[in-house]
Amino acid sequence: MMDAQDDLVNLYRSLFLIRRVEERIAEIYHTDKIKSPVHLSIGQESVSVGVCAAMRPDDIAFGTYRGHALYLAKGGDLNAMISELYGKAAGCARGKAGSMHLVDMAVGMMPTSAIVATTIPQAVGYAMALKMRGSNQMVAVFFGDGSTEEGVFSESLNFAALKKLPILFVCENNLYAIYSSMKARWPADNLCDRVASYGIPAARIADGDLDAIRTAASAAVTAIRRGNGPQFLECMTYRWHDHVGPGEDLHIGYRTAEELAAWKAKDQVALTGARLAPDVRARVEQAVEDAIDAAFAFAEQDLFPDVAELHDHVFHQ
After folding, report:
1. Measured distance CA(230)–CA(130) in Å, rounded
2. Number of domains composing the chain
3. Is position 250 within any domain?
4. The pTM is what?
5. What is the sign, positive or negative, of the torsion defined by CA atoms of 145, 150, 155, 158?
6. pLDDT-derived band of residue 316, with 50, 70 and 90 as boundaries?
7. Angstrom distance (rounded) from CA 136 to CA 142
8. 5-30: per-residue pLDDT in tens?
9. Could you tell me if residue 311 is inside a domain?
10. Which residues, in sequence order, are CB contacts of 230 under 8 Å at separation 6+?
11. Can you give the CATH number for the domain in which 145 is found?
């Protein structure tokens, strides 16, 4: 059994890996080596890491176009991810899908989607299949607060509750749908109350705290495996950069520098790292940096897909 120190090391490794991968993406994005738009998870890492820490390797995850954190937290292959961003043949979708469509079936990471809310019903369908098979696996589906305004969200909650499906709904509520504040879109801040009206237990974690997210996710996953049906977590979080791309966006005026600073003060990467002994933290960080260097070097030397496969892997085949 893993002791508390090893557990903390693994959590920090996952957090630090996501942060540094995305910072490296931001550094090179202007060179046009990355062939697709990117939606960074910097500031939101604790949600994916905390929830995935409560899941088994054979459990299934569905996510959104802001999916780098989930892909890596679930154990997705780093080399394949970076090659995919470069549009190269060794990418997780052979370079044909890019940042918004990451996938690693070997670790239960289903393809992410660029269309808001589409993976919610897909995840419900997968959970239905698991129940029909009598499997003890479960599904976690991650989505933003904007997805809760799509009709399919309510339909999916209703069906999952009706069939008592083994699914964990995880709302990464970063307060904004692109540049539109939650306060301008919701007449009341009552998402968990709305979810609970379907008979689904719902809990909010208010400040992005890694331990609180993991604890809540562990309790939810336990309930799901006991056959209690769907569970819901609203994880309050905050993205540090623009909605899309690595730039800053305070000049747009939709949020304040003070709000951003308040969330940066709660940075779970820094706070978790501070719980480790300096020498242990340094070893973790060096190993992560080495892995990232290797992944970007791999992508640089990888080849683009051959033009002969332009029509391969499409639906009609």
Report:
1. 13
2. 1
3. yes
4. 0.96
5. positive
6. low
7. 20
8. 999 999 999 999 999 999 999 999 99
9. no
10. 127, 157, 160, 161, 164, 165, 166, 167, 168, 169, 200, 224
11. 3.40.50.970
